[in-house]
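tool=predict chain=A
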Amino acid sequence: MKQKKKNTMTQLFDNFKGKTILVTGHTGFKGSWLSIWLTYLGAKVVGVSDNEVSKPSNFSVSSISTVIEDHRLDIRDSDAVKALVKKVQPDFVFHLAAQALVRPSYENPIETMTTNAIGTANVLDALGVLNKKVVAVMITSDKAYDNVEWVWGYRESDRLGGKDPYSASKGMAELVIRSYVESFFNDSDSNIRVGITRAGNVIGGGDWAVDRIVPDCMEAWASGETVDIRSPHATRPWQHVLEPLSGYLVLAADLAQSDKHHGEAYNFGPSADQNYPVSKLIDEMSKYWDQIRWNDISSNAGHVHEAGLLKLNCDKSLFDLQWHSALQFEETVKMTVEWYKAYYQNQEQSMYDFTIDQIKSYTKAAKLKGVSWASDD
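tool=predict ok
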């Protein structure tokens, strides 16, 4: 009997087992979750960041330094980045290192732009020292789009730009990536395959970044305090952190098997009906947390510009990669609050096993909903 050909997407996890994977920004929110998921898949993970972005952080409370190789350097240091890449000899690179917040970008616009644009260039430039096949997934942001706050989702072909320094820096990073793909990685014999990802608002356990709605609420409510909400009517495409990460893994696996989508950009976001205002998010979180209190301070003066509406069209990810989100808004919020409750109820215990359990639960949910990468068929 002829053996059935293995489907790349349904055998996603096999692509990373035993491979050396460099994760830049591994101490950050998404980078820490990705590092845990990859170790669970059997990869050798090498992380590089300049520091931890918050205290506490998922990196520290999940004891990630005990299960990966941990390096510290500034990605704006091109020589240091190149030396590390040459030493590590990665099979995959996931580039997440960035100054990732809008409000601090107003305080330090040059640092934001050099980290996000020049840092990206340094990572891509360092790949040129490798004499082996390597897949690089470059993570930018939905804020790379020139957001005019229309009601339909942005497509990958829409104009890039940005009104604030953070958004502009992500648009710059996209131009850097495109330049390197076209100038250095576009020959048929190139060892480097590159994918670009853009994701919407991400929530989940282990995020303690400043001026972010979920960590602000969780920290305040855990202490019995009232949280101030700047923009309760702002609408966001809320998704659990594992949703875009699954997209990054699917894209990396696809590029490892074929150069068909080399140099392409992909949106990874929730379905169109998962856009809700901040006030709805707070109402949903209140179902799992007692005695919540919050103030609407949207009328106060002095707020910097933040987009009121921004959502993505993910049809290209579905068509090319058979990827789509697995969780409904209510499931996303429940998983998020449960993670924080577990942490605040026992801060002496590592969150690593709990995080692995949520990864397993997410994979199971994706399988039940027929998501291709989670299928056994």
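Confidence is low (pLDDT under 50) at residues 1-10. Residues 12-297+309-374 form a domain with the Rossmann fold fold (CATH 3.40.50.720).
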